[in-house]
Amino acid sequence: MLRSILLALLLAAALPVAAQDEFTESASAGTADARPTGLMPRQERMLREGRGMGLARAAEINGYPGPRHVLEQAETLELTGEQRAATAELMARVREQAPALGEKILAAEAELNAMFAEGGVTGEAMEEKLAEIAELNAELRAVHLNAHLDQAALLTDAQKAAYQPMHQAGGAQGERRQMRQHQRQRSGQGER
Q1: What is the CA radius of gyration of the chain?
Q2: I need a surface site. Which of 90, 98, 163, 182 has the fewest CB within 10 A?
Q3: What angle do CA 4, 135, 86 make, to 5 degrees?
Q4: For residues 100 and 36, what is the distance between their CA atoms, to the nearest angstrom?
């Protein structure tokens, strides 16, 4: 059980600071049919929308681009029609699976919140609910990470190399510099 609690805490800590920065009541607390979850409004919104929330950052920073970002750079990466179509399918898969898992997480979080609100919660019941939430969060993270794995498999080595620096350079200036370098390499000029 302790392992489950640690896993839940690690997953919560993995959420980006931006997802943890709102210290207001739960977004669902004010709606008639939604139960309060105890999460921050932004976290709830991102779970409902199936957003990545940094869950695939390990893939992204290590050369496994995500489908949304690849489509944003489709021209620069010179994606083929087949690559664009397959990438769009990956995005559709994530858009289908992630919000559904997000809703399950929100329901489990609402149950956890209700356990405390009603009083009399036991450590054992809490640990069971935390294990359920941790498992759902792991499933959600796997959806996002698998999309990155599948996306990387669709790209050529040259496309992956061209993509990676654009996203790691940080900011528009670094991105422009990397795009110029990529163009020189394509034209045979190499680095200067």
Answers
A1: 20
A2: 182
A3: 150
A4: 18
The answer to whether 134 and 11 have CB atoms below 8 angstroms apart is yes
Count of domains in the chain? 1
**How much is the pTM?**
0.70
Domain for residue 115, yes or no? Answer: yes
Structural domain contains residue 179:
no
**What is the average per-residue pLDDT within 108-121?**
94
Of all helices (H) and strands (E), which one includes residue 122? none
Give just the sign of the alpha carbon dihedral 27, 30, 32, 35.
positive
Q: What amino acid is encoded at 124 in this protein?
A: E
pLDDT digit string, tens, across residues 118-144? 998 999 999 999 999 999 999 999 999
Residue 167 to residue 182: CA distance in whole angstroms: 13
In a domain, 29, yes or no: yes
Q: Which of 62, 81, 68, 76 is nearest to 151 (CA)?
A: 68
Does residue 43 fall inside a structural domain? Answer: yes
